[in-house]
Amino acid sequence: MRHTIAVIVENKSGVLTRIAGLFSRRSFNIDSLSVGATDNPDYSRMTITVEGDKDVLEQVIKQLSKLVNVIRVSELAPSESVERELAVIKVTADKDSRGEIMQIVNIFRAKIIDVSARSMIIEVTGDEEKINAIVQLLRQFGIKEMARTGKVSMIRGTRVIKA
Amino acid sequence: MSNKMTGAQAVLECLKREGVDVVFGLPGGVLLPLYDAIYQSDIRHILVRHEQGAAHMADGYARATGKVGVCIATSGPGATNLVTGIANAYMDSVPMVAITGQVNTWLIGKDAFQEADITGITLPITKHNYLLRSAKDISRVFREAFYIARTGRPGPVLIDLPRDVTVDEVEFTWPEVNLPGYHPSVKVHEMQIKKAARALMEAQRPVIYVGGGVKLAGAHKSLFDLATKINAPVTTTLMGIGCFPEDHPLSLGMLGMHGTKYANYAIQESDLILAVGARFDDRVTGKISSFAPHAKIVHIDVDPAEVGKNVRVDIPVVGDAKNALMALEKEVQPKPRGAWNEKIDGWKRDYPLTYIPDMDIIKPQFVIEKLCQLAPDAIITTEVGQNQMWAAQFFVHKDPQKFISSGGLGTMGYGFPAAIGAKIGRPECDVIDIAGDGSFLMNSQELATAVLNDIPVKVAILNNGCLGMVRQWQELFFEKRYSATILGRTSPDFVKLAEAYGAMGLRATKPSEVEPVIRAALATDRPVIMDFIVNPAEKVSPMVPAGATLSEILELEWCEEGHISHLEKVYADARKAIFGEEGY
Ligand SMILES: Cc1cc2nc3c(=O)[nH]c(=O)nc-3n(C[C@H](O)[C@H](O)[C@H](O)COP(=O)(O)OP(=O)(O)OC[C@H]3O[C@@H](n4cnc5c(N)ncnc54)[C@H](O)[C@@H]3O)c2cc1C
Ligand SMILES: Cc1ncc(C[n+]2csc(CCOP(=O)(O)OP(=O)(O)O)c2C)c(N)n1
Ligand SMILES: [Mg+2]
Q1: Ligand 2 in contact with B126 (CB < 6 A)?
Q2: Burial class (CB within 10 angstroms; exposed 0-12, middle 13-18, buried 19+) of B359
Q3: CA distance, residue B83 to nearest chain A CA (Å)
Q4: Number of alpha carbons in the 13 Å side-chain half-sphere of residue B84
Q5: Domain containing B50: what range?
Q6: How far is B303 from chain A (nearest CA, A)?
Q7: C-beta atoms of A17 and B124 within 8 A
Q8: Same structural domain, A51 and A111
């Protein structure tokens, strides 16, 4: 089972190391991890996807909560939250394939953010499945390079996860 | 009035305000400013001979007094020498603050002379750690560090102190602790207490399983009140030893791998286990899937992450053990003795802890019994191995702060420096390190510390000429192939070793010499090493083989004839090699 958790942490040096260290020491598997600012400059928010059963998830949450720099840990149920990831993908593109690629880009509401004689960079946001799908389609043209941010997630509606 | 001072002076001011009266350490280049401030302060500094000793002394001091122990080491090798001691304190939840020197802030990351990334190294073995980058943060960080070390589930906190931070001038302030991410859960949930009390009332075969958390909470009196009110038998882990008086009829002694048969049988037949401040360690549970198969489990622990970590818990109670036990005691009704108590008394009669006495050769268990008889109120520390298990089994423990042993990490070399720390914290008590010939040498350099600072600790070496615990496993599970466990030839003469340091050395080679040696050791106000030449073939019994169920606990056979003579020949040769034809 995969679980998504949001972790609000103090914005201090070494916090990421503490979290990554905890995961490796306790043999928890991270599928994806992203970190960034929140509306409060003192805190950052991490979104972590972990693999494991219910007991593993419970240990992950409890062990994370014990870290002094961790303010809050919450699980985000997939049915109640929205998830987004961003990817930039450099594909081989010449004048023959360019049109077909642009069609795919339009269907996925992605963007072309760089073009050269033999390549294009495509930016796409969406949930993981959508990104996997476009990657799959772009493979036929030749993917030269790809970078993905990892997932960020938020509960739908008025409920909030804040420090 | 201005409160300007150097960083080093600020550190000492913090220590004073935290009530620290003694620190254990050894200086070095980057610590010169701090040690200069120590020189000019009235804090007691114990100079050790190896930083591992400093960490274990701070640990022993903390366990004997309940206060936070403090150790100090210089950057690089000094700091890395602390690592084992910090890991030891972490595993056993000991409140400790470790202060390490660090290179100047502008040199950090440049592989400067004696630079080591000690906050990185100790990340997984500290409750929290800090690298101080500015003198103005000193008081906040020290205050937080002591607070974190002693509250909730205690543990070691490390503060890395770059040289320039100790030199810079700072205006001293004493800010309140404000840690938005740290809220130890000490209060207990009333509903959970009610549920636990009902379960205790309904149980036919309850067992209270007590761990180190009861010590840490100072909850032994509440435990006593609860257990005696409902006549529930009590077993302790190695870490919980002393929390319940072992001469009380409800005491089952220790459980687990080398626990008593009756404690392990009681667990396996129990219908309700009340676990208090214990963490279901694999040495305790044996094969986890068949641990206490008929029992509901109530688990009281201050650390939510411990609840449900190793076993399924039916009634979790997160909070401080003392609060919980007091609340539980109020909630339950008195319960008379019943069939369960009778059954347990039967097991106690049928399967007592015993050994076969010997007229000619000293049995290690006999030494422990004599120590217990002659110094019943002493603080006992232990090394690791057979000596530790016999100390747990054959001394009658009654006081939670008087049994001090490395449980989680199992650190050979712990007991002697821990004894020094304990003696400094409780100078009115006799302090005896029950040691092995292997373990003692791992920190024997601290004899110099004991002698220099006049700390009259006693060491009782159960000299079996081997790394006995490992040898025992080789005997049982590796067909007596004693790979690298026979020490005889390679150990020094411990009496001469003591004398070389200016301590007293005594030796007993016959059972009749045991008592006079102990009496002489207790009578002097000097540090003493007692070298007891004990039966090398002795095994710790009973034993639950690794991975077996607790009820599969074995009474180990006293060595077969042929085997004793084989071992004895090995030792005889070894002794001859050291002491000449006459041996000793
Ligand atoms: C050679 C060797 C053999 C051993 N054999 C055995 C054996 O046969 N039997 C045995 O029992 N052990 C044995 N041990 C020790 C074993 O390895 C563990 O260290 C020990 O069992 C753990 O004890 P504990 O469960 O009491 O936990 P501890 O490590 O003492 O942990 C304390 C627990 O209490 C909690 N706590 C802390 N403060 C509070 C508070 N205020 N309120 C409530 N809870 C609190 C903590 O969160 C933690 O869960 C052996 C060790 C060695 C080296
Ligand atoms: C630092 C360290 N190294 C190795 C071990 C593994 N070990 C556990 S018990 C033991 C034997 C200890 O020998 P000794 O101190 O003579 O005690 P005995 O078992 O003979 O009483 C060893 C090597 C350990 N626990 N700690
Ligand atoms: Mg030995």
Answers
A1: no
A2: exposed
A3: 17
A4: 18
A5: 4-171
A6: 8
A7: no
A8: no
Q: Provide the ipTM.
A: 0.93
DSSP code at position B320: -
Give the Cα separation of A55 and B2 in Å (integer): 55
**Chain B partners within 8 Å of A10 (Cβ):** 180-181
Contacts 24+ apart (CB under 8 A), B89-92: B89/B55, B89/B58, B89/B59, B89/B62, B89/B155, B89/B156, B90/B125, B90/B126, B90/B127, B90/B155, B90/B156, B90/B408, B91/B407, B91/B408, B91/B409, B92/B59, B92/B212, B92/B239, B92/B406, B92/B407, B92/B408, B92/B409
Give the residue numbers spanning the domain of A54. 2-75
Domain count, chain A: 2
Distance B462 CA to ligand 2 centre (A): 12
* A10, A18, A55: residue with CB nearest B123: A18
Residue from the list A17, A18, A63 with its beta carbon closest to the beta carbon of B305: A63
**A64 and A107 co-located in one domain:** no
**In a structure prediction context, what are the per-residue pLDDT tens digits for chain A, which is 163 residues long?**
899 999 999 999 899 999 999 999 999 999 999 999 999 999 999 999 999 999 999 999 999 999 999 999 999 998 999 999 999 999 999 999 999 999 999 999 999 999 999 999 999 999 999 999 999 999 999 999 999 999 999 999 999 998 8
Which residues 6+ apart lie within 8 Å of B149 measured at CB?
B68, B95, B96, B97, B127, B155, B156, B157
Q: If residue B164 lies in a helix (H) or strand (E), which one and from where to where?
A: helix B163-167
CA A90 from centroid of its chain's CA atoms: 19
Question: Within a domain: residue A47?
Answer: yes
Domain match, B412 and B510 both:
yes
Contact B123 A21 (CB under 8 A): yes
What CATH number does residue B515 fall under?
3.40.50.970
Using DSSP bridges, classify how beta strands B128-131 and B96-102 pair: parallel, antiparallel or unpaired.
unpaired
Query: What kind and span of H or E run contains B198?
Result: helix B190-202
Asked if B123's CB is within 8 angstroms of A65's CB, the reply is no
Same domain? For B285 and B380 the reply is no
